[in-house]
Design brief:
Layout lengths: L1 H22 L1 H12 L9 H14 L5 E5 L6 H16 L4 E6 L2 H15 L2 H7 L5 E6 L3 E4 L4 E6 L11 E5 L10 H13 L12 E6 L7 H8 L3 E4 L3 E2 L3 E4 L6 E4 L3 E2 L7 H19 L18 E3 L5 E2 L1 E7 L11 E9 L2 E10 L3 H14 L5 E5 L4 H8 L6 E4 L5 H13 L3 E4 L6 H11 L7 H14 L7 E2 L3 H10 L6
Parallel strand pairs: 1-7, 1-8, 2-5, 2-6, 6-7, 13-20, 15-18, 17-20, 18-19
Antiparallel strand pairs: 3-4, 4-5, 9-12, 10-11, 14-21, 15-16, 16-17
Helix pairs in contact: 1-2, 2-4, 3-4, 4-5, 12-14
Amino acid sequence: MKTDKYLNSLIKANGLLYEKTASSLRSYFKHTWTILEPNLPLKYNWHYDLMAEYLMACSQGQIKRLIVNLPPRYGKSNLITVCFPTWLWIHKPELRFIFASYAQTLSTKHSVDRRTIIESDWYSQGYGHLYSLASDQNMKTEFLNNKRGVMTASSIHGAVTGKGGSYIIVDDPHNPRGADSDLKRDAVITSFDRAISTRLDDKDNGVIIVVMQRLHENDLSGHLIEQGGWEHLKLPGLFDKPKTYIFPVSHKTKQTDFNEPLHKERENLTQLMDQKKALGTYGWSGQYMQEPSPAGGGVFKRSWFKFWTKLPEKLDEMLISFDMAFKETSDSDFVVGQVWAKHGADSYLIGQVRDRMDFIGTLNAFVTFCGKYKDAHLKLVEEKANGAAVISALKKKISGIVPVIPKDSKEARAHAVSPQFESGNVYIPDPKSNPWVHDYIEEFIKFPRATHDDQVDATTQALLRFSSRPTGNFIDSSGKSGKSLVATMIGDNAW
């Protein structure tokens, strides 16, 4: 009698479990993880819930074109490419899928994983009565069920002629090793536009999902985002500013903080910084931050940046340029102060202070910076944000403060000074001994699409001033003043 009760309760418990996993992609993913990764415990995180809701919105017809960008090894393939389609077959086994990745081997692996779930004892016991795989069409790269549903795995360049799908899922269409090649990158985009994207059975209701890490500004995600009409879920490995995510089905929200890792149990801040060092700023920006900068640059080309290790003995002029912030919050712009020197046609960035500061902190930083570079008699301050208040507070204490009111847009000012970079007349400190220079360069490369542009603003302000006035008397490093100047500048460039 006890045995009968036990079996009845077990059957009931299993029934509730299957009911829960059928109705909740989140629960289904958690359970199927143990099938796919029996020796690797799942470290669950909120971003799985968010992705699951975007996928459920696709299944409900709310979203028909979806791009998901997130770092490598954050569970995107297991959830989106493997679990989601097998979950959909529980509800609609007649659905047809086309999958594409940059390599047939990767696409085949995902196909085998999907079949592993379907053929597992757990899946068969709970959902095996809904459909069965066709014995005469059960290959690694393509299998059918008895409800006419089919899952076809191909490479991005593979033959899909004659095949159609209710869903097209493109997972990592670019090989990271070839993403910098215009030829290879364009070939992927052409294959998607002319072949993959045309294979929907129902153009009005069919769903296309592209999931990938960003590898280049002009990768497939960039191409589709520029076209418009796509829902875009961007999940950086580290949040460089607070962001609020709204879940599309439950409508709950998730607020992230400045400098918060996406999944700290997977990669904490220290590990992320190690990864940034390993990838380099350019690779980090794309693969982890999902904000790739063009390798060559936009307004400013990467190849234009020149470095100095030793300053000229004679400097014609020296000035300080400050760009102020509106407020001190975790997502506000930075306060940036730069000291620049001029020698003939060449301009040299000597040092920089950059931080998020409140008004009192800004005043203190300004005073300290001006005291550090006493030979910079001209201090340019853009008269916006806190700039006007700083000028008012310090003009009686520090000489040479000149307010600047830009007449042109940021973009126009950047274009105005870009020839100075292109001609090789602008020199910045050697990044080998000044690590902050890497972020300085990346901000220029991404401009005007960068999250922040304060370093660009301070630079254009200084260079436009240099180009608008004749050079004065030089500062000679052999003299007392000049010797002090060079001693101040060399070896202590970042502040």
